[in-house]
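User: Show me a protein chain along with its predicted structure.
Assistant: Here is one chain, sequence first, then structure tokens.
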Amino acid sequence: MMGDQTLFMRADQVEAAWKILMPILNSWQTKMSVNFPNYRVGTWGPETAEALIAQDGFHWITPPIKNEKE
């Protein structure tokens, strides 16, 4: 990576990228999606995620919870 400038964006490329992205980000802040499967923080996600993989006979594998005293 040292000295290889092709691995990094130039300043004008960064500015152009932000000009494209900012209208999208601003729109997302002002308009709530009614069909997005939101879920509570700290949970494993929306029920639709489980249903999606269950269609193919799979399920999420969750790691065991460690005891705080260990």
